[in-house]
């Protein structure tokens, strides 16, 4: 379930049945499956994130078998949410004092007894939210429920007041909606846009720029040259995606990626618009 982009925060009366305003956090989007042999974190693309975040294993293991949650793996460092810390190793995060949490914002299934699961996706969000908050009320951090309210004024206070803490914006959802239906919207502070990196320039260990596919389908090389920090971030995130080097008629020598890498870019104005890499985005 993915929210559509919106420019403004919808009014309470604009959504039939009422709205739930949730904080939009910047992390790795992941489903949590509580299985008989232990918990599993699954990325939006279907990858297994469990080995990357061993600090969540014990807390997620306390969920009743059959539970399926939708949420975000987040990192808290030096008083704010810090997405880039999720790209580091577990050991590096420990040394830096990074706190990793799984922040749940929806529940897709709950324990049905005898190791089975009860599918909740056709229930309304109002019902699912009640089940989620009751379930996680007995689970200690680092597993927690996202901050949410039905009061737009309170949500706007969060939107304006928590930006410096790394909160990305808001997600607004209809309380009468089912999971998999329509109606989720996101409102972000950033003037940047989402894109997909499809190739690297330079070398896989020290990329100098990215070839990105924009939302309109066009591909363009980023500029200026990546600095050392951003180059390292891209190299780590793309390590398992780099294919064989290949010449490109338009862009010259590059390293194609075997799958798209979600990134955030800023598009400049003017006659010759430039695309500047901001960061790798979470799944």
Structure in words:
The protein is α+β, with helices and mostly antiparallel strands and 283 residues long. The chain folds into 2 domains: 4-188, DNA ligase/mRNA capping enzyme (D-amino Acid Aminotransferase, Chain A, domain 1); 193-280, no CATH class. 16% of the residues lie in helices and 40% in strands. Strands 3, 4, 5, 6, 7, 8 and 9 form a 7-stranded mixed beta sheet that branches. Strands 13, 14, 15, 16, 17 and 18 form a 6-stranded antiparallel beta sheet that branches. It starts with a strand and ends with a strand.
Mean pLDDT: 90
| Beta content | 35-45%
User: What composes the largest sheet?
Assistant: 7 strands, mixed
Rg: 20 Å
Low-confidence stretches: none
* Global geometry: globular
CATH-level-2 architecture of the largest domain: 2-Layer Sandwich
Taken in chain order, the helices and strands follow as EEEEHEEHEEHEEHEEEEEHEEE
The total count of helices amounts to: 5
CATH class of the largest domain: Alpha Beta
Q: Could you say how many structural domains there are in total?
A: 2
CATH domain fold name of the largest domain? D-amino Acid Aminotransferase, Chain A, domain 1
Which class best fits the helix and strand makeup?
A: alpha+beta
CATH superfamily placement of the largest domain: DNA ligase/mRNA capping enzyme
End-to-end C-alpha gap: 13 Å
Tally the beta strands: 18
